[in-house]
Design goal:
Mean pLDDT of chain A: 94
Order of helices and strands of chain A: EHEHHEEHEHEHEHEHHHHHEHEEHEHHEE
Helix content of chain A: 25-40%
CATH class of the largest domain in chain B: Alpha Beta
Radius of gyration of chain A: 23 Å
Number of strands of chain B: 14
Mean pLDDT of chain B: 94
Largest interface: A-B, 15 and 13 residues
Distance between the termini of chain B: 39 Å
Oligomer: heterodimer
Number of domains of chain B: 2
CATH superfamily of the largest domain in chain A: NAD(P)-binding Rossmann-like Domain
Strand content of chain A: 5-15%
């Protein structure tokens, strides 16, 4: 039996993926309400494909809040997501508390794997007093919206070990083999920093793309023509993050940048580039706001504004650090009507926001439409219907998902 | 970088403006008066901040519910030397001496965009403060002195850092709209360095006054760059002035002596703080400046 302790986004996705690979799984969380909801198939997060996968493998997974069920598990993943505060700093206390409490219920012969997002040094601090035979730190870069696919078909396993020469226990090894991907054992600290390193490289691509896309906007160049050329460069690659966006959001990437800054500060390393990424991201998040003030407000001082999309990206319900929410907060004097397929309630501080039942309804009598999250559904709305609903002729469409003749259309990188 | 202590704007009880003879202070008094805000403008002839007795005068005058706007400074046209720096700092010392013991509703210090690192081409309120000469050092030092003093008396403090200000009443004759208009009107000529390629943000003095007014009515705390967010080349400014004058104004180009540098301002903090504030477009502002110059004795 394999256990996942902590059933937030990370734990749920990997528990279900493990069941899908044919293992029997115990999903444990001390919150009985959460467990009861999970037993009814009511998931606390939206993740494409997760609910369906759970339905297919419900016989192989049991959810419990009774710690006694952990004692028979020989492989235990500590999988609670580490939350971040407004400053994007990790709060490790819930994870530490859970571990301290759950340890006592593990079998002494169990293998314990930390799956949570932890900084360098965390797993080593556990190893010193571990009550279990084996302890590892496995890196998971949870990508909201694509987490199920990545969990079922991982690119590789990065595994932090007390001793990288150590042979993996049989059940852990069997579990790894089920996913048929390379396994890279390394010391704890390397694995923990590997996750941060991956995210730093992603952020560097994102911010470089955003910087150059903005220059495109001023020079007549078109970033969408440039990006394919970069993808064919072997040093950059076909999967590089080359789509312009509104800065980094969601919390995970931001967290890792904060962690690097904290480590650099502690050890006296030069990390100004990370600060520059953070500043660039904050700057990009306000792109739509600047376009609105530059192009629309001088021509229409009291605009009615329609916003499509509130989540920080598609295929998630998360609004953490969402550019849309920041935009609406910065437009307090104006009335805004928004629609997002995953958002049913308005954040409390957005008093100027009204939710519409659908995308077209949000456009009713609007002077400007701002598309903040590029949900596929939005690109399928008939432009003639948009035109009929709106009274103005401005579309701020950062990701260029709408083709509507007759509108002043503003897009990133063009 | 800018926080409003009053989300809903309301008139301050009284605004005391130090440096009433200045170009900006004059526009500010006009604006606040037009808004029905009580203000008291004090010039150096009534209270010379360089002299120690100014401390007692200010203490006797300043009420706890007053807002204080500090525009007083010896600008570079009055001197760029150490002596001028020390006089400016002496003013700050006297102000601080008063403000650390006697708080008021708010202090607004009119700083300058010169406080920012001249090498940065996109200036934001969070940009690095880096002295490039004694004038910028003066403003940076004054900001620190006032921060320390107002922290002691728990007085809300706001720094307003204007970019290049233009307007008919300007006396500084600095390179840009002010000098261009004067030479165009006097000699039918505008002289540029190189081809005037340098890009700068120019803001109409009335707009700066409006922004300070907004900071006062919201009791804003922090830093605000008073800029339009739309930078133009000096050549563009010169052409625009020539168009406004509608006569045969020649644009003359002198050999360039220094490297070309550009400076833009990111208006995001201003946009978020005051969403309904729209800066006057340069062409409109220059036309107004022309009207003011030709209907008053500013020539």
């Amino acid at each position: 039996m394999i256990a996942f302790v902590g059933l937030s986004h990370l734990g749920l996705v990997h528990a279900v993926a493990t069941a899908a690979k044919g293992f029997n799984v115990t999903g444990f969380d001390p919150n009985p309400t959460l467990v009861e909801n999970l037993r009814c198939g009511d998931l606390p997060v939206f993740e494409p494909g997760l609910k369906e996968l759970l339905c297919q493998h419900t016989d192989q997974i049991q959810f419990t809040s009774d710690p006694k069920n952990l004692s028979s598990c020989e492989l235990v993943f500590l999988s609670l997501d580490v939350p971040t505060n407004d400053q994007n700093e990790s709060n490790l206390e819930p994870l530490r508390n859970l571990i301290t409490w759950a340890w006592n219920h593990f079998s002494p012969s169990a293998t314990c794997v930390v799956l949570s997002q932890v900084p360098p040094g965390f797993t080593r601090s556990l190893w010193i007093n571990k009550p279990v035979k084996h302890l590892f730190a496995q890196v998971e870069t949870l990508v909201f919206g694509n987490a199920v696919h990545r969990a079922l078909e991982p690119e590789r396993f990065i595994v932090g070990c007390a001793d990288p020469q150590e042979v993996f226990p049989s059940l852990y090894s069997e579990w790894q083999s089920a996913f048929n991907c390379p396994v890279l054992p390394m010391r704890f600290e390397s694995a923990e920093l590997a996750k941060i390193s991956i995210n730093c490289f992603l952020v560097s691509s994102v911010t470089t793309t955003n910087t150059l896309a903005e220059i495109c906007e001023h020079t007549g160049a078109d970033w969408s023509e440039i990006a394919p050329a970069l993808r064919l460069d072997r040093r950059i690659g076909p999967y590089a993050y080359l789509t312009p966006g509104l800065g980094i959001a969601g919390g995970n990437l931001e967290r890792d940048l904060v962690t690097v800054c904290q480590l650099a500060s502690r050890y006296g390393s030069h990390a100004e580039i990370v600060t520059a990424w953070q500043n660039n991201s904050r700057y990009r998040a306000d792109w739509a706001l600047r376009q609105l003030h530059r192009v629309v407000l001088p021509r229409c001082s009291h605009p009615r504004i329609a916003v499509w999309g509130l989540t920080y990206k598609v295929d998630t319900h998360s609004m953490k650090n969402s550019a849309a929410v920041a935009l609406i907060a910065a437009l307090a004097p104006f009335q805004i009507t928004a629609f997002d397929p995953m958002v049913a309630s308005i954040p409390v501080h957005l008093a100027n926001l009204e939710l519409a039942p659908n995308a077209l309804a949000a456009c009713h009598e609007a002077d400007v439409l701002i598309v903040m999250t590029p949900w596929k559904h939005f690109s399928q709305v008939n432009p003639a219907e948009i035109q009929a609903e709106m009274r103005g002729r401005f579309i701020i469409d950062p990701y260029g998902i709408i083709s509507a003749p007759g509108f002043t259309h503003l897009q990133l990188g063009l | 970088m800018l926080e409003h202590l009053q989300k809903q704007a309301s008139h301050p009880n009284r605004v005391v403006i130090l440096g009433s003879k200045g170009f900006l202070a004059h526009a500010l008094v006009q604006h606040l008066t037009s808004e029905g805000i009580d203000c008291l403008a004090i010039g150096s002839s009534e209270m010379d901040l360089i002299h120690p007795d100014s401390m007692a005068k200010l203490s006797g005058l300043l009420q706890p519910d007053d807002s204080l706007v500090i525009t007083s400074a010896l600008t570079p046209d009055k001197g760029k030397d150490v002596a001028t720096l020390m006089k400016n700092l002496e003013m700050a010392r006297h102000l601080a001496s008063c403000l650390e013991n006697q708080g008021c509703s708010q202090v607004v210090y009119i700083s300058s965009d010169s406080v920012y690192d001249g090498k940065e081409s996109l200036i934001r309120e969070s940009s690095t403060r880096q002295a490039s000469d004694l004038y910028s050092l003066m403003h940076i030092a004054r900001e620190q002195i006032l921060s320390q003093a107002t922290a002691k008396s728990k007085t809300p403090l706001c720094f307003v850092c204007p970019c290049a200000i233009y307007g008919a009443a300007d006396t500084h004759n600095s390179y840009g709209p002010n000098r261009f208009f004067r030479t165009a009107l006097k000699d039918c000529k505008i002289t540029l360095f190189g081809n005037g390629e340098e890009i700068r943000d120019h803001i109409l003095v009335d707009d700066v006054a409006r922004l300070i007014g907004l900071c006062l009515t919201h009791r804003s705390v922090g830093i605000l760059n008073a800029a339009t967010g739309v930078a133009q080349s000096f050549h563009h400014v010169a052409e625009n002035i020539a168009d406004v004058l509608g006569s045969n104004v020649a644009i003359e180009c002198l050999p360039r002596t220094g490297a070309i540098t550009h400076r833009h301002f990111d208006p995001t903090v201003r946009i978020k703080a005051f969403p309904q504030f729209e800066p006057t477009p340069l062409s409109v502002g220059l036309a107004k400046m022309h009207r003011d110059l030709t209907t008053t004795s500013h020539k």
